[in-house]
Every structure is written in C-alpha cells, then in structure tokens.
Amino acid sequence: MKVAITGGTGFVGSAAALELRRRGHEVVLVSRRTGGDVGDTRALADAFAGCEAVLHCAGINREIGDQTYRRVHVEGTRQVVEAAKAAGVRRIALMSFLRARPGCGSGYHESKAAAEDIVRGSGLDYTVLKCGVVYGRGDHMLDHLSHTFHSFPVFGLVGLRDNRPLRPTAVADVARILAASVDDERLARRTVAVLGPETLTLGAAVRRVAEAVGRRPLFIPLPIAFHYALAWFAERLMRVPLVSLAQVRILSEGLVAPAGAACDELPADLVPELRFTPERIRAGLPTPGGFGMADLRCCWR
Questions:
Q1: Which residue among 101, 111, 158, 161 has the highest number of C-beta atoms inside a 10 angstrom radius?
Q2: Secondary structure, 3-state, 180-246
Q3: CA distance 151 to 172
Q4: Is the pLDDT of residue 301 over 60?
Q5: In 10 A of CB 3, how many CB atoms?
C-alpha cells in the first residue's frame, strides 16, 4: 500500500515511516523540508496521488510568524482532508493530543480539537490518536532535559506539588498504532487514547531521565507562573525553546486521561507496552552536551 505522511520528516512521522516500510508499504514523506506545505491543497493532492491512506502528523507546539495553531492545525488539516479526497485517498489518521478540547483558553488544545472534528467529519475512514507525552530519539522532552541537565546544576519542577501524573509513551508504540491504522478495520472511524503502560508523577519522570543522563541536579519546585514566564522568554530567544507556553499548560494539567471527544478502546494487541525504563530513555538521548550559542535564534543560521 502507498501511504503519505504529513510531517513525515519529524519526530513521530519519521518513526511511522520506518514502521510502514518495515511492513512492506510504500511511503511518501510530505513536509516543509521536502517542499510540501499543509496549506497548499494542490501540492498536497499531487503528493497524495496513488495513496490509499494519509497519516497526518504535521503540527507545532508554538506559534512563529504565519505558523499559527489555526493555520497549521485547523486550516492545514482542512487542506489535508480536501487534498486526500481529491486524490481518492480512503483512510486518514490524525496525530492529536490527549487533552485537546474546545473552550479551554489554550490555542494549542482548541486547535487540536478543531482538527479532530474536521477529520471525523471528513467522510473518510479515520483514526484519531489522542496522545500524551511521546518520547524517543529526536523528541523535545529527552533532548531538552538532557541538554538542561548538562547546562544547569538546578532544575525547576512544574508546580509546588509533585502531583501531576503522566504516562510516557514510546514513539515506537505510537508508530505501531499509526501503521496499523492504514489497514486495520478495528481502528476505522475510531478515536483512541494512546498512553504508556506506566503512570508516574512529572517529578518522578524527570528524575528518571536525570538518572539515565548521569546527572544529579538540585530539583526545586517552582510555581507554574514562573514556568509561563520562562516559556515566554524561551520562545523569543531560542530556536527550539527550552519549554513552550503550550507545553507548560500541557504539563500543568497532567496527562493520564483524555479530554474532549469520547475515546474508543484500543484493541489489546495494539495497547502500548514499552515502559519508561532507564535503558529505553538512554536509547533516546541525544549526544551528551549542554545548550550553546547555536540554540539562540539570533545566532542560528
């Protein structure tokens, strides 16, 4: 089967591409790096030609210039759906967010919920994956935590109490479900929550990463308002921010239960099974080192 992946050169998209190829499918990568844009219906329809399925993994976690949540998540998803229908694609899978919902005051959450509605109303066979924290080589979480631990002796935890749970999900598990969505009828017209097998508090998860990195920073609980201020500056100063405003909102809510649309149960053989172990964390870590001048927007070329 021929399958197109938007955001195909990104973290989740590239993992899904590897899994699809492993299963014998032909893969078309669509991203700004390959000359594709979710805002160009004609280019998308050309890219989708001959494809039977589309995995829509393109997304952002902060707004820069014209790359807004509305343009990328909402209008971009609408263009992807229109292009898929024009190209005769029969199935679409959307990589969404566990806590996506309307009317919550977060542009990220609300735009993801709107994208879900567009896909569910497309008339195509769809699968919506509502994911929480996804980790693995090339992600933002392990990458930035590792660089932070190599750069600073102190780490600020989100909130004054360590009572925000999450269930980290290995990108390999997400890729396995995305790959299954192209031809598994059990996932057709389903919205599923994708969560790892282990529940940890945010503080416990961060400490486990520090252990895997081999660093022992001083952990200090800090109010959420501090992290919003840090994110505001980081978005303006860093090429890939240490933390974004959307990520602070995400972490402050906890990530163990879906919000918004009701979810269907995943088939037992597709339930994520890879635990957030030190060994798996180490396998996803970047080259050891701290932040440098190249991480600043003013110095990056």
A1: 111
A2: HCCCCHHHCCEEEEECCCCCEEHHHHHHHHHHHHCCCCEEEEECHHHHHHHHHHHHHHECCCCCCHH
A3: 29
A4: no
A5: 28
Nearest to 210 by CA among 160, 163, 147: 147
* CATH superfamily assigned to domain 2-287: NAD(P)-binding Rossmann-like Domain (3.40.50.720)
Which phi-psi region, left, alpha or beta, contains residue 245 (left: φ > 0; alpha: ψ -120 to 50)?
Answer: alpha
Domain ranges of the chain: 2-287
Residue 27: in which H helix or E strand, if any? Answer: strand 26-30
CA dist., res. 167 & res. 64, Å (int): 29
What's the chain's average pLDDT? 94
Q: Residue 90 carries which DSSP code?
A: -
Q: Kindly list the distances between the CA atom of residue 176 and the CA atoms of 184, 269, 271, in Å, as whole numbers in the listed order.
A: 11, 10, 10
Q: What is the pLDDT of residue 60?
A: 94
